[in-house]
Amino acid sequence: MSVFTTVHEHQLNQFLTQFDCGRLVSFAGIAAGIENTNYFVTTDRYALVLTLFEHHQPDELHYFLDLMAYLAEHDIPTAHPMCSKSGSYLGELNGKPAALVRRLTGGSLEHPNTEECRTMGTALGQMHRTSPGFGGYREPDRALPWLQETGAILAAHLAKDIEGETVALLEDELDFQQNHPRGHLPQGAIHADLFRDNALFEQGRLTGIIDLYYACNDALAYDLAVTINDWCRDEQDGIDETRARAMLAGYQGERPLNDDERAAWPGLLRAAAMRFWLSRLKDQCFPREGEMTYQKDPEVFRRLLIAHRAQADATRAWLNG
Ligand SMILES: Nc1ncnc2c1ncn2[C@@H]1O[C@H](COP(=O)(O)OP(=O)(O)OP(=O)(O)O)[C@@H](O)[C@H]1O
Ligand SMILES: N[C@@H](CCO)C(=O)O
């Protein structure tokens, strides 16, 4: 688990006095997650999740929490943040910005089936019909400039211990991405990290999309590529075509991709694979300190990137149902 900042009972009790949420019954650190510190918090009135944000600025936190509230209020299943007595979603706990959100029921799916992928695609399409109406703006923080900066740091670090092949892949893909920008595609607020562990299901029904702490304004179709790359991956770290087609059909039932998005699709899948390859590799090469932390395997996304580079036409064919 990743608890970077330990919360003591007296600190939590003090924090809860800012909300009209009842008396603390229990709390426990949450095992999943690698970015923020999360606790389940139960009061005599609510089941909540407390998040201490480890590296975000107040401006972006307002964006995330306002977006969660906006989506929830537009019937997109997300965890609505709790408003404090003074009217803010954002407080401070143990020196860190902190928020309480409603705890959703259900659990994440390790092996989503075709129908669950279709359901997720439908929900993402609904979210993308709604999110361009959200008034907030946040610059994407894992787009090309970040890829370039992180890629350069990693290439220098890796050149010392591994074969040149990986560094060559990294540099070649950076070059490709630089020549395939996505600013001309339809834009809006995107989740940007809608992995299986960021959606909760109960009896085949999606109960909620969580962890909007990478949300930003970017190409909507890029968000779909991020989602497919995780939900539809097969055992060999390629993509399971049946699940990918189902997710795309679910999505396009709500929001059909336009010609520009269809043309850009293979490059978007590559951009999405590259982004998570590099973030995982960075965590592996430069681990952060924490009370309990775990890392995710970067190789999965390196292999997926290689697969996408080899099959642009096939990935475009998935768009046709
Ligand atoms: N609103 C919620 N309702 C129920 N469970 C939640 C909620 N928010 C978070 N969780 C639980 O906490 C876990 C960690 O949350 P989250 O994914 O936000 O962590 P993170 O460190 O910010 O994320 P990540 O590593 O995925 O970027 C989730 O996998 C889920 O089990
Ligand atoms: N979803 C990311 C974790 C960072 O949010 C990953 O699996 O690498």
Provide a descriptive summary of the structure in words.
With 321 residues, this protein is an alpha+beta fold. The protein has 2 domains: 9-102, Phosphorylase Kinase, domain 1; 114-320, Aminoglycoside phosphotransferase (APH), C-terminal lobe (Aminoglycoside 3'-phosphotransferase, Chain: A, domain 2), CATH 3.90.1200.10. It has 10 helices and 9 strands. It has a 5-stranded antiparallel sheet, sandwiched between helices. Helix 5 (164-178) runs antiparallel to helix 8 (259-285), helix 6 (220-231) crosses helix 8 and helix 8 (259-285) packs antiparallel against helix 9. The longest helix is centred in the last third of the chain and has 27 residues, at 259-285. It is globular, with a radius of gyration of 20 Å. The mean pLDDT is 94. The structure holds adenosine-5'-triphosphate and L-homoserine. Adenosine-5'-triphosphate (ATP) binds at residues 2, 30, 32-36, 38, 49, 79, 101, 103-104, 193, 197-198, 210-211, 213.
List keywords for this structure.
Aminoglycoside 3'-phosphotransferase, Chain: A, domain 2; 321 residues; two-stranded antiparallel ribbon; alpha+beta; binds adenosine-5'-triphosphate; five-stranded antiparallel β-sheet; 44% helix; 10 helices; 9 strands; 2 domains; Pseudomonas-type_ThrB; Phosphorylase Kinase, domain 1; binds L-homoserine
